[in-house]
Specification:
By secondary structure, the protein is α+β, with helices and mostly antiparallel strands. The protein is 35% helix and 34% strand. The chain has a single domain, classed as Thiol Ester Dehydrase, Chain A (Roll), CATH 3.10.129.10. A six-stranded antiparallel beta sheet has the order 1-2-4-5-6-3. The relative contact order is 0.20.
């Protein structure tokens, strides 16, 4: 059964409650693209009245991780997933609604297929870019995901 934004929202409520209560929501997911939105609010702001960097990171990671979960489900294999590294670049103050988009679905699909074929863990870097309501890039996050077939 395919992973949908509604299923991910339910998952975050039970397994990642901080993501849920901070208002981070998957808006769309496909085999190649995932978009996640978070709105700057009192509960997720920093002292400078903008979106706290860690909340941006949570939204960006979810845009990559949801696709990893979806590809794992599509593979019908028992595969573990874990972030082993990350990088972030902040370009503008994040206020209003920020949408994080990851376009690396094909990359993680190939990485998972390589892990299945080789039987050893594989890693790949996935990028998520956050833009504000005016289409201005506010931050870029990169996550190194590792996937491994469980015995």
């Amino acid at each position: 059964m395919p992973i949908t934004p509604k299923k991910i929202t339910l998952f975050t409520f039970f397994k990642l409650p901080s993501v849920y209560w901070l208002g981070i929501r998957v808006k769309s997911i496909s085999e190649t693209i995932c978009t996640v939105r978070v709105k700057h609010r009192w509960i997720n702001q920093n002292p400078f009245k903008s979106l706290f960097w860690a909340v941006q990171g949570m939204a960006a990671e979810l845009s990559t991780g949801a696709m990893v979960m979806s590809c794992i489900e599509d593979s019908n294999q028992n595969i573990s997933m874990l972030v082993v590294n990350n990088k972030a670049t902040f370009l503008k103050k994040a206020t209003g609604s920020i949408t994080f988009t990851c376009n690396d679905g094909e990359l993680i699909k190939q990485t998972i297929n390589d892990a299945i074929a080789s039987g050893i863990g594989k890693t790949c870097w996935m990028k998520s870019e956050g833009v504000n309501e005016n289409g201005i890039l506010v931050s870029i996050f990169e996550f190194e995901w590792t996937v491994k077939v469980k015995p």
